[in-house]
Amino acid sequence: MSGRSSGIEAAPSPVETGTVDLPARVAPVELVEVGPRDGLQNENRPLPVGTRVELIGRLLDLGVRRLEAVSFVRPDRVPQMVGAEEVMAALPQRDDVTYVGLVLNRRGAVRAVETACDEINVVVPVTDAFAERNQGAPVAALLDEAAGAVEVARGAGRSVSVTLAVAFGCPFSGPVAPERVADVAEAALALGIDELALADTIGVGVPAQVRGLTALVQGDERLRRLRFHFHNTRNTGYANAAAAADLALDVPIALDASIGGFGGCPFAPAATGNIATEDLFYLLRESGVPTTGPADLDLGAAAEVSTWLSEQLDSPVTAQLGRAGDARVRA
Amino acid sequence: MSGRSSGIEAAPSPVETGTVDLPARVAPVELVEVGPRDGLQNENRPLPVGTRVELIGRLLDLGVRRLEAVSFVRPDRVPQMVGAEEVMAALPQRDDVTYVGLVLNRRGAVRAVETACDEINVVVPVTDAFAERNQGAPVAALLDEAAGAVEVARGAGRSVSVTLAVAFGCPFSGPVAPERVADVAEAALALGIDELALADTIGVGVPAQVRGLTALVQGDERLRRLRFHFHNTRNTGYANAAAAADLALDVPIALDASIGGFGGCPFAPAATGNIATEDLFYLLRESGVPTTGPADLDLGAAAEVSTWLSEQLDSPVTAQLGRAGDARVRA
Fold it and tell me: How many structural domains does chain A have?
């Protein structure tokens, strides 16, 4: 049998014609960089204001155009975010860049609008267990705070998003009923916001949830843009991002990611954190999904920023592209 | 505005009714454990036969029922796989377990059928560049070798699968044309095999490729079972696995995984390797996808095996479940 012809002849250049079927979606996915906020917030070593400003400058050089720059939270609770006002004051003012400031309540929004933040991102957990432990009040009270924050942001002419924390699972109360997420989402959308975000704060979610939760909120005519925030704590983050990018929606989709994959998880201290900007970009690019902010990303340059940040934080890069190298699977 | 009722009242137990929409697929996905072969082959430290036998015993205790136990390759090329015959001789003979032996050619199959291997897995690369460098002959010649190996396996009453290496991208020639994969797949199916596998040997693939390549082979009536082999080298492995589990096919689907995620990638030495059995199981379980071999997996016990293997190999666990902890997202 070894003398039989296989019917396969040596192809001189079999790789030159490689293509994959592109997904139905052609609308671009917006990438939102959260490294300067979520990426730093869960690392043990607080970075000085100057280093945080340098990080943001390096991200802008990579083509990042929307980024969570700071959070206006209590310095005694989150020392990594001390000096939000100083960071904002030091950033270049650019019409093509959206700086996002995270707040938990009306007081945070009042601080934020005193700075050059273009967008206020209000975090509202969907479970009372998390709300009480993390923010000292039940969900209903935090929605009232969110309403106040939205009012403050609108009054100052800033755009505003609401991020639903622990929408995929709660570290204190476990599984979360999708209907509960839908209820809090509806309350958030009723505030008149520019974007709703579903956050897998502790990295427990799976693609079926991405689709299931989206199905519950996508019919709301007040939904203008849907953003997702995934952590790779249990190695499901990129699968979730791929599922989100495949969604066929009438509204734009945005995905959070953190350069280098920094960020960790406060509820699983040894685990990895946010999905990494460079790895997410690779996944989307090779899948034929166009992106905005950046539309293209130099993966080598991104890996250099990650390595630099790793040195600043004394924490390992969890993104893999820097170690594995770029590779194009489509010709 | 802070006094306004949000319409969301405190829910006493919002988590108790949590469900996610189950995917359309109800057919189980078979898990194939490749830790004893691919997991060890790319680690620097060869393990003695006794330790490899112990590893397989521990995997059987976890519920693993189909596993790549050994490879019959040249000892001078792959010192980690020395002693395949001794490993096979030391394993418990069980009717409910399928031991797979990997071979590259007819000679390997001759060795394999002298042992208790239930199944012969023949690896055939789809690019000449990889075939020449890795196995010293072009694809056409290796398909002839595969034909010989299938003949030997059939003559000895063993089942046989063919794994198409570098089907998602080649470290030497780059992108691979899907038509090339389809051509080699057709030649492999013409040999009369029990299963075809598509392997992302270097971890460059994305979900769109999983669907695209599957579309090219699923119509072949000789296809009896489709298996996928993913590496997480660039953080796309679990997204690919999720895409494979979502495929709606007339034939059963199997997924390779390695306990602890050991295995590395010889073409990216610093990168992580196979997708991890425990993390894959978590992803599928939480997605509502039933599995076989194991139907259920004790994630704590699996993490213990990974930790033990990490000590034997002096190599870190890349699976995340052990660090992050199990969490159920469905009530």
Answer: 1
